[in-house]
Specification:
single chain; alpha/beta; Rossmann fold; seven-stranded parallel sheet; about 290 residues; globular; about 45% helix
Length: about 290
């Protein structure tokens, strides 16, 4: 049995589904009881309702499992403390393997949610556990968050300059790697950067969308103020907004580029390109 924390989110569900397809039994750790049915639909054998800040609940959830895949909720202000509790629970429950879902370039102190993940990575080095750390880039799926404006207005909006180059990766590729390192030997002590083969500027993303959709799509930078208003309406909290704004400003100054070699080696095939991802998505929408 493999325990997946943060299981109700898109990352957790993708990993559960891939593990289930490989025949693995998954226990999904979720925050609310109404999340149990969705995770079972994608393949979880069991659901466990608990709080990631409750070490007792984490220990109970981990009992009977041989591995944990730990996903902390995105931009959680207490990620370091949660990492401590998950690590302690793993030890108390006699867990053999812990795989941590980190982020590409956690060394960047200017982005707090990256820096916090680096502190959790350091914790794992000192834990004595059999660990693996995955460091994925931003997901290609994030582009779909603005799909309505893309198809109805021909505008792809981003809160940083359109010249900004960002490494992106298909979440399905990440889930494939996660399942491999959880179910195959040979990954103890590894830190794997998971970046796709594309590091496009936002203008290049818009050009690709134009080509695939058959009509012009323009990349457009929106102001931080406008983005913040939209984020508030969407229900993001102050800490999350502040953290994301710092990330956007880092992107603006330094870009955010990775390399796909490690991902390709782990997959045993070429990683998914942005073109292939978008072609597949558009074909299902039409």
């Amino acid at each position: 049995m493999i325990l997946v924390t943060g299981a109700a989110g898109k990352t957790g569900q993708a990993i559960i589904q891939t593990l289930a397809n490989r025949g693995a039994d998954v226990r999904a750790f979720v925050y609310r009881s109404d999340y149990i049915e969705p995770v079972k639909v994608v393949g979880a054998r069991e659901g466990f309702v608990g709080d990631l800040q409750d070490e007792v609940a984490l220990t109970q959830a981990a009992r009977g499992c041989h591995a944990i895949y730990h996903i902390c909720p995105n931009m959680h202000p207490d990620e370091i403390a949660i990492g401590q509790r998950v690590t302690a629970a793993a030890k108390q429950a006699g867990i053999q393997r812990l795989v941590y879902h980190s982020v590409l370039h956690p060394q960047v102190e200017a982005m707090p949610h990256h820096w916090h993940k680096l502190r959790v990575e350091e914790m794992l080095f000192e834990s004595g556990l059999d660990f693996t750390i995955l460091q994925p880039a931003a997901y290609m799926q994030n582009i779909l968050g603005g799909w309505q404006a893309i198809v109805s207005q021909g505008v792809y909006r981003v809160p940083y300059p359109v010249e900004t180059r960002l490494s992106i990766v298909d979440l399905d590729d990440v889930a494939d790697v996660a399942a491999r390192v959880l179910t195959e030997p040979g990954h103890t002590g590894a830190l794997y950067e998971l970046a796709g083969p594309d590091n496009p500027s936002q203008s290049e993303v818009a050009l690709l969308l134009s080509d695939l959709l058959g009509y012009p799509v323009k990349a457009e930078q929106i102001s931080i103020d406008a983005w913040t208003e939209g984020a508030k309406k969407a229900g993001l909290g102050g800490y999350q907004i502040e953290t994301l704004v710092k990330m956007f400003r880092y992107y603006e100054q330094y870009h955010f580029e990775g390399n796909a070699n490690v991902l390709g080696w782990l997959l045993g095939r070429p990683p998914t390109t942005l073109r292939t991802f978008l072609e597949t998505y558009i074909s299902t929408e039409r």
